[in-house]
Write a structure and sequence with these properties.
The chain has two domains: 1-59, no CATH class; 63-387, 4-Layer Sandwich (Purple Acid Phosphatase, chain A, domain 2). The chain has 399 residues and is α/β, with parallel strands linked by helices. Helix 1 runs parallel beside helix 2 (137-150). The protein has a seven-stranded mixed beta sheet, with helices on one face. The model is unreliable at 1-42 and 117-129 (pLDDT under 50). It has helices spanning 85-93, 137-150, 165-174, 211-227, 230-233, 263-266, 277-282, and strands at residues 5-8, 37-41, 44-49, 52-53, 57-58, 70-74, 77-78, 99-102, 106-107, 112-117, 129-134, 155-157, 186-190, 193-197, 238-242, 287-290, 296-299, 302-303, 306-307, 323-327, 347-351, 355-361, 366-373, 379-387. The relative contact order is 0.14.
């Protein structure tokens, strides 16, 4: 029988203490006025306050730079129609994932109070629901759903458009990511990868004008400059960016990514300031992960609508630009996305199946990626490997 030691929640635990109820949960915050207490015994822990404690969980601690982590990657998973959830829970329980990247749109929606069942006649789905009112019950349900995952491995999130209400209040208070940006943007290390999460929503919800855009852009610029230094990138060579709304997509729903001058890609209209594509290219970002579109889509290495494959035979070996992946098909109350009939030349593979992605950072040179179809019983419907002998800025162009 172990004897608990009580400590304030620190960065060690910020990633995994996601408890189910807004009114009853204890947030893992190192800056809050009422810090949570956590009982630690090696990798076993419980979470709570006063006389209310959770069951005992086991935390999988992360190693240093010299190991090969495998991460689940997906966006747009709700409480209703969360088709991928059983597969994710099973894979985490069996040790298949070391962390999760949820690239926006959580719960559908965190702030909602309840769902009213609409019956199987609505688009043929028995679990189709209509959201009503505020109150956070849907968010509570989502936290309960991901608890078997988030209590075992880091559950890292980025804000999506469905988190917007009341200035992203539920998103900012239910999760505690590294740093002090209220979860808008942050970075962290896992194995040989440095992962940068940021908000695409600052470009679309402009109640505060340009302040958040400028703040985040300058942070990204400074962060990329820091981690691109030779002494840092020698240890963590892979730079992976994750945000919700993609720069590129081949869907036909008139979203930002369907337009040539995507705001996320080139910046705000007229002045075209604070666009992210040139910034990520300049600092040699290797992989960009997106959600929002309820599909899976893999692009060829791409910059400014120009395919920059490593070679014809091996397009992902020493590519000349970042690789973009859209993986927003985990399952939610909204339907599948649809693709344009005529696919652009920069699209390598597409799938409408519900599912999730599996990414393994093997070492300094190899990163592999798979798309798992929940609709097809866990079948791997796409896979590829990025091989890089060099990580750093891409070929100088007229930026």
């Amino acid at each position: 029988m172990w004897s608990p030691t009580f400590v304030k929640a620190a960065a060690l635990l910020l990633y995994i203490l996601l408890i189910s109820s807004v009114s009853e949960c204890v947030y893992a915050s190192s800056t809050g006025t009422a810090p949570v207490q956590v009982a630690i015994a090696a990798t076993d822990y419980v979470c709570g306050s006063g006389g209310n404690w959770s069951m005992q969980y086991t935390l999988r601690t992360l190693g240093g730079a010299d190991w090969s982590p495998t991460l689940a990657v997906y966006g747009d998973m709700g409480t209703a129609n969360a088709v991928s959830l059983p597969w994710l829970v099973e894979e985490v329980a069996s040790g298949g994932f070391d962390a999760v990247l949820h690239v926006g749109d959580l719960a559908y929606d965190l702030f909602q109070c309840l769902y009213v069942h609409m019956g199987p006649e609505v688009q043929g789905r028995e679990n189709w629901f209509l959201p009503l009112q505020e109150g956070g019950k849907v968010g509570d349900k989502f936290m309960e759903q991901v608890e078997p995952i988030a209590t075992q491995v880091p559950y890292m999130v980025a804000p999506g458009n469905h988190e917007w209400l009341h200035n992203f209040t539920h998103y900012k208070n239910r999760f505690s990511m590294p740093g002090n940006s209220e979860n808008y943007h942050y970075s962290w290390n896992i194995g040989p990868a440095h992962i940068i999460s940021f908000s695409t929503e600052v470009y679309f919800f402009l109640e505060d004008g340009l302040k958040l855009i400028e703040w985040q852009y300058h942070w990204l610029e400074q962060e990329l400059q820091r981690v691109s230094a030779a002494e840092y990138r020698g240890e963590r060579p892979w730079i992976i960016a994750m945000g919700h709304r993609p720069m590129y997509c081949s869907t036909n729903n008139d979203n930002d990514c369907d337009h040539h001058n995507s705001v996320v890609r080139v910046g705000l209209p007229l002045e075209y300031k604070y666009g992210l594509e040139k910034l990520f290219y300049q600092y040699g970002v290797d992989l960009e992960l997106w959600g929002h579109e309820h599909i899976y889509e893999r692009m060829w290495p791409l910059f400014n609508y120009t395919v920059m494959n490593g070679s014809y035979e091996n397009p992902y070996t020493n590519p000349g630009a970042p690789v973009h992946i859209v993986t927003g098909s985990a399952g939610c109350r909204e339907d599948h996305g649809d693709f344009k009939k005529d696919q652009p030349e920069w699209v390598a593979f597409t799938s409408r199946d519900y599912g999730y992605s599996k990414m393994t950072v093997h070492n300094a040179t190899h990163l592999s990626f798979q798309q798992i179809s929940a609709d097809q019983g866990g079948k791997v419907v796409d896979e590829f490997t990025i091989i890089k002998d060099y990580h750093g800025p891409y070929r100088a162009m007229d930026l």
